[in-house]
Amino acid sequence: MNMFARRIRASAVAAALCFSAALPGSAFADQMRIAFGDIATVESLHLLAAIERAKEQGVDVQVTFLKSEDIAAQAVVSGQADIGIGGPYALLQKVKAPIRIFLQLSKLQFFPVVNSEFYKDWKDLDGQEVAVHSRGSGTEAIMRLMADKNGIAYSSISYVPGAEVRTGALLQGNVKATIVDSSGKRILEKEAPGKFIFLPLGEVSATDEALFANTDYLTKNQKDVEILIESILTTWREVAADPKAAMAMREKYKLLPDATPEMVEDIDPYFAEAAPTLPVNGGGEDAARDDFDFYTISGALEGKAADLKVEDFWDLVPLNHVLEKIGKK
């Protein structure tokens, strides 16, 4: 479990470096500075490969891994990062920050899970604490939505960034109810068969992670943004067609060099499961409408879904330009 602690510390250090170094007017001004509110894991392998491909096309991309989506969003709003990764819907609506989503990276694919020694179903979580990724994240939205559907109220929600960290906390007994990704689900089933119960979720269609940026940055750097989008979508399409391509990309670009043998072993199974859900057309207006439906129900967005305007949350111009070039799948 020391691996999880090391990654948390590394993320904290990265956050400190980001805010001390990436200041307006610094030597980093010409770079495309991406703030990722998570840690680098198997689940981000294809994104890391896509970024390397954007670099090959002349875009000087620098990625900083931060300890939460909140910090990543703050970095973009304050100008300390150009592009953020996360789901900033609540920020966009409540703060009216001058940022826009411009590409869907992934859809929600999570599994609410409880320690069977304490809980058996959703009703058992009434008055209990649950752990999610971060404030305003898709994991929080799912858990709040399921509380509403099942007529329960949690005593509190704790924020534990990183699906691997939450998986480790479950195995250690430090967390009794949380939500993990497909990799975490496989680890729990392998390491402690029968100890954990995965609670029913039903059908959920919404954005998990997206790229977003300051509107001024999108206007002034449209060429670089479109190169990044094209690199991501072509990578997504390769992985969707052949999930084993992710492993080949890791080897080609020497990604995740510190990955443990267990993590490497999980690459092929993870992408075999994730491939069919990859948004190979970048989401766009259809994704925005799905998100309005989901996030208004879960409480992350206020008002009626039908009254929300796509242009208040998304800038579709660069994505549409790229799709005109590479076609829709």
TrEMBL record:
Residues 55-246 form the SsuA/THI5-like domain. Residues 1-29 form the signal peptide. Keywords: Signal. It holds the Pfam family NMT1. Its main location: periplasm. GO terms for cellular component: periplasmic space. The keyword NAD does not apply. It is found in: Periplasm. SUPFAM superfamilies: Periplasmic binding protein-like II (SSF53850). The keyword Signal applies. Gene3D superfamilies: Periplasmic binding protein-like II (3.40.190.10). It comes from the Bacteria. Belongs to the bacterial solute-binding protein SsuA/TauA family. This is NitT/TauT family transport system substrate-binding protein. It comes from Pseudaminobacter salicylatoxidans.
